[in-house]
Fold:
Amino acid sequence: MVRRAGLSISLAKTSELVGSGRLDPEYYQPHYQALHAKLKSIGAVTIDSFADANDGFHESPVWVEGGGIPCISAKCVKDNYFVLTDAGQVSLSQRDKNPTKEARVGDVLITSVGTIGNSAVVHKEILPAIMDRHVGIVRIHKNANVDPYYLAAFLNSKYGRFQTWRESTGNVQLSLFIEKINKLLVPVGEQFNATGKLVRKSYDKFRQSKQLYADAENLLASELGLDKLDLSESLFNIRTVSDVLKSKRMDADHYRQKYYRVLKAIEELKPKSISPLGELTDTLTNGHTPLYHDLDTGDMPFFTAEHVYDFRLDHENARSIWKEHHETLLKRTQLRNNDVLITIKGRVGNAAVVYDLPSETNINQDVALLRLKSGIHPWYIAGFLNSPAGKALMEQIATGQINPFLGLGNLTQIKIPIFDEKRMNELGEKIRKTVEKAESARQEAKRLLAEAKSEVEKMIEGI
Structure:
């Protein structure tokens, strides 16, 4: 091996080339070779010695609106947790044709297309579910002494990541094939299994966080008495011509009876007023189409609709934008604490309050920015919009079936029940404190995962 001017040259024997079947120089970089040699030196074994690896179903998904089974794709599997918000449902008949592809408690899933190497353990809270072909499924043998939670931690550590990246092939889109997953090296033993306890604790914290976020979504509805809304569908809807002319909508979905039951329930609360959202804001706008790039020092994190959940902003995965190309536009939508963000395209209707911003941050065109008038508590507004009543009203005004869209003009017309400032502040503060507890539990879960990976790496390096 020769190093010069920050570059390295790695020499490989012909026998190594033949054995690996790889001719790409990246495969033989010194860093990879050193990590591989370390695993071999401590007696790491291949996955197929203690588990069976396969992938999900290969045929095209048969998507259904309801009554199916959630489909886990590569985008759903993160670093020891799942994001199933965007998981569609496939038909039960497709599940019946692929019984071995249905998720089981203890399965270790690995993303094998696109984003390579994310791993997480299937637990009962995400069942039932089925995996597509972009996810590898590792099922540990019953008699094998390998903790699935440790295995996931190892695969997410640098000793697992380098292997999944190294063994991936493809130019435009990387793929990690099942035969390569079977041959990944894993150190085993009781000392390694012990780290599974930390991962289990982290999963418990994720569950706690998820429940607290759900409590925040239901809190306002419960406090106001909107928790028993009848959101069932009717067989038919009858509206007058004047209703159609007033709303300027011809689509039948807009006139579902459940939307009018929501409005009636709000009126029966006898609020101080029922105000259009536009009257409660000083600023209501959306972002713009940016020029993205990899995150570098000095540039601006950027939220898209994919980063806005109910009450939560995904700071970790925010994109980055070239500040110099958008200097004027960025000033218009640079975020401030207590701004309310709403997703208006794709996964529409998620509302989150901006708080504890780490730096200059902005939004793209798929996110609406609401800067509220004085006296209107942002967490109260977010709480109503994320409640079943608020979700229903945003669903009503959205347009488009395949790719829903919330126009800003329509968004301003959403009816918000307004009470005296003291009551709204009390409700808003309850929601804020619940969300803060949820986020604290989520951060603790991430800390435990980081600790588990660190312990795995230290054990390997200390042998």
Summary: Residues 1-5 have pLDDT under 50 and may be disordered. The CA atoms of residues 377 and 415 lie 16 Å apart. DSSP finds 15 helices and 22 strands in the chain.
